[in-house]
Structures are given as C-alpha cells and as structure tokens.
Amino acid sequence: MERVHCDVVVVGGGIVGLSTAYALSRLAPGTRVVVLEKEAGPARHQTGRNSGVIHSGIYYRPGSLKARFAVQGASEMVKFCAEHDIPHEVTGKLIVATDRSELPRLHALVQRGRENAIPVRELGPAQIADHEPEVRGLAAIHVGTTGICDYGAVAERLAQASGAEIRYGSAVDLIGRRASGVAVRTADGTVVRAKALVNCAGLQCDRVARLAGDDPAVRIIPFRGEYYDLTRPSLVRGLVYPVPDPAFPFLGVHLTRGIGGGVHVGPNAVPALAREGYSWGAVRPRDMASTAAWPGMWRVAARHWRYGAGEIHRSLSKGAFTQAVRRLLPAVTEDDLTPASAGVRAQAVLRDGTLVDDFLIREAPRTVHVLNAPSPAATASLPIGREVARRALAALAP
To answer: How many helices (H) and strands (E) does the chain have?
Structure first.
C-alpha cells in the first residue's frame, strides 16, 4: 500500500480544484499539494464540456459570490490566457429580447450590469442587425466584456503551473479525519495523509462531503445540457443569448461562436439519469435513487414541471429544439443542426427544493467543501481558487 504525505489534498481535477492548487502555490510557496482526480486527465466533466464562454457577470445578484468572482474572474481569465498563450478572444455578446414580455427583464439586466460595474449598451432592431444580420429581436443589450477561450487548455496549464502532484485515475473511496489532519484512501489502495482537505469534486462533491463525515445539506442533481453544431456557422458572427428567466439558473438556448470558428447551439437543461449521464442511454440506478430520495427534487419537479416538460420535449424532438433556436435565428433549419457533445451541470438543491443560485463553499474541521460551482465557475475559477486556498491555509493553522 502506497502512502503519500502532503499539506493539502484536493479532491477533483476540474478547473476549480486545479485553480485551488495553483493559488496555494502562490499564496504559500512551499505548500505540498496533492490533487486526486478519478479520470485519466483533467477537465473531463463540467470544465471540458461547457460552451467555452468567459462570462461578464451581468446576470448575477450584486454582491453575490457569482457576481464578484465572475466580474473579477473574466478579467483575470483573459490575462491568464494571454500570458500562457491559450487561445481566447474578447468578443462581446448580445442578449436579445424576442417578445414584449421579455422587455422588462432585459431592462432589469441593464440595471444589474450597471450595479455590477459592467459596461452595457442598449440596442434597437436595426443595431441588432448591425452586429448580427441574421438575428431578429425587439431590443437587445451588448455586453462588451464577454469572451471565449479553451477551458480544457486552461485547466492543463493550471495543473502544470501549480507545482502540485496530480494523481489521475485516483478515485476516492474513504476519508478519515482527526484533529491532526485527514487520511484519504483511493480505489487502488493508496493512502494520502494531509493536514487539510479541499473537496472540489463537482458532480460528486456532496458524496465526498459525506465520506468526510459532514452533512452537506444539499444534494447534487445533475442536469444535462445538450448542444448542436451549426452547419452554416456564417449565420452567426459572435455570441447571442436570449433573455433568461430569473426563476432558473439556466441561461437558455444560445449561439456561441467558439475559438475554432464553429458555432455551438444550446444547451437545453434536462434531468440526467446519471451524474455523468451525457445521453438518455446513460443510466445509473444508484444516481437515480439518490435523486429520487431527495425531497428537494420532488419539490423542484412540482414547482417547475411545465418548464421541465418543455426542456424534455426539446431534447426528444429536434424540430422543437429548432423552433426554439428560430426565435433568435429565423434562418436556421433542422438540417443546419448536427448533434454535439453534451455536458452535465452539477446543480445543488436544498431539501426545500431551492435551486442554490450562488457559489456555495462550506468549511468543517480541516476541510473545505465546494458544494455548488456550476457556470460561471470556469470564468470565476481563479478568484474561487484563491478563496478556497485561503480557507484551506487557515485550516492548516494549529
């Protein structure tokens, strides 16, 4: 049995876990860090399966962690990419109202942008066409600080620059905690002893918290986001979003021109039948039982069943999905859309059915748990990593 000793052990090799390791090396040089990742490489789940957008922070409640860290993180992510020669571009984006009922929400976003110190510009139909000739809308706002990048490449660079020992293929199956520190056993029998543990396990974070003996008070409910590629990418110049419904943490089906020049269309948001369920055929009874046993899930379903039914309909019907896209982009046809890789969002849900709408970081003795870090966590990963690292370093104090 191999035994490894370090100061901090990080569970999870996505962008938040690797950013935490990177921050530890800068805040406290010489800190020995081990990162345990169950997959064969970094960024295999949420980090590597999103649309690659560097979010501005316009959507998030002023003063929230999401607002603070997204605004700060967007600027830092652009700088990090530039310093490390990672493909990126500050493109700006349009948020477009296609129905009169959306206009009050669009105006509210203008105000929220100002409160979050984000420059926004209001546009009429003719100005929308100047930016995106094929997009139709009643009004829009242009957010200049939005961009795109390759988050998989960012995660790989963070891993290299962190100086941490990254152990891939290391699924955690047992955690023991005492006043002096923690011991983490992996599936291959390796035992890592550390003075503090950081849980950045994403889709598995609530389970890791329970392994450590803590009650996370939330359950991760997986929502799959399905994407299509646009076969006529010339229809879209940049990034185009609908006006989101503030009752949900999802931004709706949008159009994203990526670093490679292709255009992603999506995602929708449907309940996944496995925590890492990237298709309807990916079914894991243990995960389904975990979801079904959580009272909050049934309350979510009762409260939002109409919204959920619409998302499922668009998942199962390409025609229905195409109609949703046509609200923004009338020229699109079913033949213009080809299936692309899906992602799964790790959404924390409280027992009362509340969808946690901010980043959620909780502490326990010798432990820091990141329990809700979906989008815009990739954008905000550098300031999130510093915050988590500061808390982990405080846990090292005698």
So the answer is: 10, 24
**Nearest Cα to Cα of residue 102 among 1, 300, 246, 284:** 246
1, amino acid identity: M
CB neighbours of 390 closer than 8 A, spacing ≥ 6? 27
Round to whole Å and give the CA distance between 242 and 353. 26
Give how far Cα 180 sits from Cα of 7, 177, 194, 212, 365, Å.
11, 8, 9, 14, 10
What radius of gyration, in Å, describes the C-alpha atoms of the chain?
21
* Nearest to 218, CA basis, from 308, 291, 287: 291
Integer angstrom CA distances of residue 172 from 212, 270, 294, 395:
11, 28, 23, 21
Structure tokens at 141: 């706002």
For residue 87, whether the previous peptide bond is cis, meaning omega lies within 30 degrees of 0, is no
For 1-29, b/e burial (b = at least 16 CB within 10 A) is eeebebbbbbbbbbbbbbbbbbbbbeebe
User: ∠ at Cα 16 (219, 86), nearest 5°?
Assistant: 140
Spatial contact of 14 and 155, defined as CB atoms under 8 Å apart? yes
How does strand 3-5 pair with strand 191-194? Answer: parallel
Q: Which residues pair with 311 in a beta bridge?
A: none
Three-class DSSP category at 166: strand
d(CA 63, CA 45): 28
Taking only the tens place, the pLDDT of each residue in 304-353 is 888 889 899 999 999 999 999 999 999 999 999 999 999 999 999 999 99
Cis peptide before 271 (omega within 30 of 0): no
pTM comes to: 0.95
